[in-house]
């Protein structure tokens, strides 16, 4: 049995007969008669009593008519939602904290400018939190500077960045120091689990070193302010402190024996299928990073 059978049954009931139903459905009368006969045979039920040229619904027919209308209505709702999905305007994107601070304002502005019909929501969290939101399907895609560990996600490098050590211009530290020397200064670091801290800790570990921060914070801006106040050396994304260095509020401390290079990544679920507008928004965001790289 198909939805066509149910729709034909409903049409016969509403039209009051086979001939009128056939006309309403734009099909031949024998086709309508055949469809009703197929339903009755398949379910071993009598839908109509035949009195000459008149059809009268049986009690079984009346009960089944109500259920048929309910079923067809549900199917119509399904079709409406299915067709509407192709023009889905919802977009849920995410970013880790540094990318959220540096690039998300530009992404949001570009998406709203190019695709004003999109209903956009943005989550800016730690990389580990963003990863979880991608895995459970809460986000369509995200950009992170940390490592992605889930095998359910795929990643693509979209931007190159590096960590840099900075302090106030008055802070007593040479222009160049070794990684080991860095660990002996008061350090202002992001919290464990953040992308910046994970990269620093991994680099230290490879060199059999550890760092005990004097100040530890989830806020990049708080660490920048502490560094500018002369409280120690902060290790933060270069793009994040660039303005402060250019304005003379901070100075760069070169670490001579290591490189804090890293990539920012686009991440999404490996089974994610993008609707047309979502695909366009993704391209807009990737182009933004491409232009910055250029």
What is this structure's SSE topology?
Elements (H helix, E strand, L loop, with lengths): L2 H13 L2 H8 L3 H15 L4 E4 L2 E4 L1 H27 L4 E7 H6 L1 H11 L4 E7 L1 H9 L5 E4 L8 E15 L8 E2 L1 H4 L4 E4 L4 H12 L8 E3 L2 H9 L4 E5 H9 L4 E5 L5 E9 L6 H18 L1
Parallel strand pairs: 3-4, 3-5, 7-11, 8-9, 8-10
Antiparallel strand pairs: 1-2, 5-12, 6-10, 6-11, 6-12
Helix pairs in contact: 1-2, 1-3, 1-4, 2-3, 6-12
Walk me through the structure.
The chain has helices at 3-15, 18-25, 29-43, 59-85, 97-102, 104-114, 127-135, 179-182, 195-206, 220-228, 238-246, 276-293; strands at residues 48-51, 54-57, 90-96, 119-125, 141-144, 153-167, 176-177, 187-190, 215-217, 233-237, 251-255, 261-269. It has 294 residues and is α/β, with parallel strands linked by helices. It has three domains: 3-85, Winged helix-like DNA-binding domain superfamily/Winged helix DNA-binding domain (Arc Repressor Mutant, subunit A, Orthogonal Bundle); 90-159 and 263-293, 3-Layer(aba) Sandwich (D-Maltodextrin-Binding Protein, domain 2); 160-261, Periplasmic binding protein-like II (D-Maltodextrin-Binding Protein, domain 2, 3-Layer(aba) Sandwich), CATH 3.40.190. Strands 3, 4, 5, 6, 7, 8, 9, 10, 11 and 12 form a ten-stranded mixed β-sheet that branches. A two-stranded antiparallel ribbon has the order 1-2. Helix 2 crosses helix 3. The longest helix is centred in the N-terminal third of the chain and has 27 residues, at 59-85.
């Amino acid at each position: 049995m198909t939805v066509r059978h149910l729709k034909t049954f409903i049409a016969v009931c509403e039209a009051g007969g086979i001939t009128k139903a056939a006309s309403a459905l734009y099909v031949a009368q024998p086709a309508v008669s055949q469809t009703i006969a197929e339903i009755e045979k398949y379910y071993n039920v009598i839908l109509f009593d035949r009195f000459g040229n008149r059809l009268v619904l049986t009690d079984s027919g009346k009960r089944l008519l109500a259920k048929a209308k309910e079923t067809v209505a549900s199917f119509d709702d399904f079709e409406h939602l299915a067709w509407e999905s192709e023009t889905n305007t919802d977009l849920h994107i995410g970013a880790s904290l540094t990318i959220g601070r540096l690039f998300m304002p530009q992404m949001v502005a570009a998406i709203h400018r190019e695709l004003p019909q999109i209903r956009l929501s943005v989550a800016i969290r730690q990389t580990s939190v963003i990863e979880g939101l991608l895995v459970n399907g809460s986000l369509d895609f995200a950009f992170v500077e940390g490592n992605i560990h889930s095998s359910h996600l795929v990643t693509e490098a979209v931007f190159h960045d590096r960590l840099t050590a900075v302090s106030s211009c008055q802070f007593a530290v040479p222009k160049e120091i070794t990684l080991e020397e860095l660990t002996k200064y008061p350090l202002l670091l992001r919290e464990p689990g953040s992308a910046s801290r994970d990269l620093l800790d991994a680099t230290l570990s490879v060199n059999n070193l550890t760092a005990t921060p004097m100040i530890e914070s989830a806020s990049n801006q708080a660490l920048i302010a502490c560094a500018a106040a002369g409280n120690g050396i902060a290790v933060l994304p270069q793009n994040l402190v660039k303005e402060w260095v250019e304005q003379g509020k901070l100075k760069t401390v070169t670490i001579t024996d290591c490189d804090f290079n890293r990539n920012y990544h686009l991440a999404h679920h490996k089974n994610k299928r993008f609707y047309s507008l979502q695909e366009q928004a993704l391209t807009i965001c990737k182009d933004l990073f491409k232009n910055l790289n250029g």
